[in-house]
Amino acid sequence: MAFAFLDDIRSKFTAKYSEKEWKEAITFGLSDFGPVLATEMQRFQGYDPKVARVREHLEEVKDVMLQNIDALLERGERIELLVDQTDRMSQAAFRFEQSSVRLRHALAWKRIRNQLIAALCCTFILFISVAVGCGGLDFSKCGG
Questions:
Q1: Helices in 17-48 by DSSP H: which ranges?
Q2: 76 in a domain, yes or no?
Q3: Cβ(12)–Cβ(40) below 8 Å
Q4: pTM
Q5: Residue 19 covered by a domain
Q6: I want to staple 139 with a disulfide (CB 3.0 to 4.6 A). Which of 6, 68, 92, 134 is the partner?
Q7: 44-103 pLDDT per residue, tens
Q8: Cα 98 to Cα 95: distance, rounded to the nearest angstrom
Q9: Is residue 2 part of a domain?
Q10: What is the DSSP string of 55-88?
């Protein structure tokens, strides 16, 4: 619309004045073109149903775009919330893994300790049994 206005003004201006006239014109020397300019401005500012429909359509599109932007921002906030929750869950999983490794090591050492204690107890009971069967701690009956 604006370019059509400018093209129309340019064509009327160049039809009315030669290049020499407008290049050599003094200030307000071409003021007789003012009424033409005012008339054209009024004509281009006038109501046009096609332009009104286009403007209404543009307003509708603008409203839809604003709604889309709002929805996108809301979705972005939800995505940010999900990212935060994912970070927290990742940290919790890492802590859980560390604690499970520590627990597994602690249980393994406990099992080894219990096995050593059981082996020592069995060895002690075997020693006592042999000692009793061989006549005491000096093993006098067993050839020692």
A1: 19-23, 34-45
A2: yes
A3: yes
A4: 0.41
A5: no
A6: 134
A7: 776 566 777 888 888 888 888 888 888 888 887 888 888 889 999 999 999 999 999 999
A8: 5
A9: no
A10: HHHHHHHHHHHHHHHHHHHHHHHHHHHHHHHHHH
